[in-house]
Amino acid sequence: MSSELIVFLVLSLVAVGAGIGMIFSRNAVYSALFLVLNFITVAVFYLLLGAPFIAMSQITVYAGAIMVLFLFVIMLLGAESLAPSGELPWQKPLAYVLAGILVVESLYLVFLQARPDMVVVAPDAAVNSMESLREMAMALFNQFLLPFEVTSILLLVAMVGAIVLTKRERAGQK
Amino acid sequence: MDWTIWVEWIVKGFVLCLILLTGFAYLTLYERRALARMQVRVGPNRAGPQGLLQPIADAVKLIFKEELTPAKVYKVVFLLAPVLTVVPSLVLAAVIPLGTSFTLGGRVITLYVANLNVGVLYLTSIASIAVYGITLAGWSSNNKYAMLGGIRASAQMISYELSLGLCFAIAIVLGNSMNLVDIVNAQKDMWFVVMQPVGALIFLIVTLAEVNRAPFDMPEAEQELTAGFHSEYSGMKFALFFMAEYQKMIVISMIAATLFFGGYREFWFLKDTIFSVDRYWFLGPAYMLLKVVVLLFFMIWVRATWPRIRYDRLMAFGWKVLLPLSLVTVFITAAGILLAQELNNQLYYYGIPALSIICAMAAVALIYRSLRRKSDGRI
Questions:
Q1: Which of A32, B66, B184, B346 matches a 20 to 30 Å C-alpha distance to B267?
Q2: What interface predicted TM-score (ipTM) does this complex get?
Q3: What is the C-alpha to C-alpha distance for residues B174 and B329, in angstroms, rounded to an integer?
Q4: Closest CB to B129 among A3, A53, A64
Q5: Which residue did the predictor score with more confidence, B28 or B228?
Q6: Do A68 and B154 touch (CB under 8 A)?
Q7: How far is B153 from chain A (nearest CA, A)?
């Protein structure tokens, strides 16, 4: 067994464990922390696959920025342990059905679609150079410029929307 | 894989941790003595000659202090928070080059633990993780003041991280690489602080906020929050927060030296003399130490000089002044380099510092004007 495989197995145990812990925690802060752990493990997976840039972005953006905001909101609202509310009775059965469909789909893909000859090729050392980073930036800002800009506009709209919504609420209180 | 590589990594990591721990112990003494001198006092000078044994006395005291865990804290997170604060401050230093390399028994030993091609991104990602310890310490203490301190800390660190990232971008653009060794080597002919003085200044201001030092130490403001996020901590657990703060000061001085002050390299006008690190490898760590001590003195000096600024002004300063200013400086730097390369005219390089200094002065003038308007012309 190669050392990479051992690392992979241990990490996948951690990742799956963190995911399960996130779902089953009764306390929202613990859930958020498990999710952070999961994000960091995924980042290490990227490192194993020879993509340090994606790994570091994953940690900075998801674990470092987004989850901090999540924690912030949980702490500010004092929503650590909300009692389960029974307001949406159709939600649980629907969740079971959707989860069942997801499981069937992924089993189908794993057992019928994944062929043994589809081997993931380990990238060579050249991928890890500054050149690959430069190429990625070139692709992002030339070939995929339109999707990139559309994404940024979407994010901007979401941000403006959040500000507008909170403003209106405050005006109503006065 | 060769087992000697493992030995080398482990020894290097161990030595780096030792350097940071010793540095932390003596930085506390350095700060107390320097602060005392600025306030016309003597400072601690009883334990050992010139108080040199004071850090050891402090450590003994902290170890034997009673550890209190309040009854209604969230225990797991409460115990985890100090650890989560200390670890990033140690791990950050792994990518910082402390010198060139030397040969020992036929092996070339480099003076850094890891040489990542995305070294700068590594720094940003670890710095963004560092928020958790303080935030969670505030929340898990189950105490209003600690909670306020934790929330203030996370808001402040997220806000100032943006400008920090842009300062990293300035160094990346100037050094044409994300690798810290390459960035240091690019400063052989000229330090980046000369090319982009405003970027270096913003970096120094932002790092003060990132390590929660005065005048940006709102998360632990004594008058209003008793002690902020670490109110409920005592003994060794408190010492860990203390340790993290001082280690972060050291590491961030190292980063500032690496990105803007030539790293382990000599002054640019000494580059081909016998004082060059290319001649003697041991000059590298010595220059690094010198730069770190000077930058730490700057931090202590700021603490002794400036009063703490109000929280809303801190946020306004971060979002309305530092962020636009750093955006403009990134733009000026990138545009200057592009113009100089495309038009093959070296004069554009001189435009970078000149234009950015003008922008910084405009920012200062704007702050002055708005302060004057608020105070009805009393300033």
A1: B346
A2: 0.79
A3: 12
A4: A64
A5: B28
A6: yes
A7: 11
User: How far is C-alpha B180 from the chain's CA centre?
Assistant: 15
Ramachandran angles phi, psi of A90, nearest 5°: -80, -5
* Nearest CB to B125 within list A27, A30, A64: A64
- Tokens 């929307």 sit on residue: A161
- Tell me the residues of A at the B interface, defined by beta carbons under 8 Å apart: 3, 27, 29-30, 33, 36, 52-53, 56-57, 59-60, 63-65, 68-69, 71-72, 75-76, 128-130, 133
Q: What is the pTM of this model?
A: 0.83
Task: Report the half-sphere exposure of A126 (CA within 13 A, side-chain side).
Answer: 1
Domain A1-80 fold:
Four Helix Bundle (Hemerythrin (Met), subunit A) (1.20.120)
Distances (CA, A) of B208 to A134, B191, B245, B303, B330: 32, 22, 11, 10, 20
For chain A, the structural domain boundaries read 1-80, 129-174
Neighbours of A70 (CB within 10 A): 16
Alpha-carbon distance of B160 to B323, in angstroms, equals 8
Buried b / exposed e over A88-106, threshold 16 CB at 10 Å, is eeeeeeeeeeeeeeeeeee
Neighbours of B336 (CB within 10 A): 24
Fill in the DSSP letter of residue A83: P
Instruction: Please check whether residue B355 is in contact with residue B332, taking contact to mean a CB–CB distance below 8 angstroms.
Output: yes
CB atoms within 10 A of CB B335: 15
The secondary structure of residue B291, as a DSSP letter, is H
- What integer is the mean pLDDT of A123-128? 51
8 Å CB contact between B108 and B100: no
Confidence band for A126, pLDDT divided at 50, 70 and 90: very low
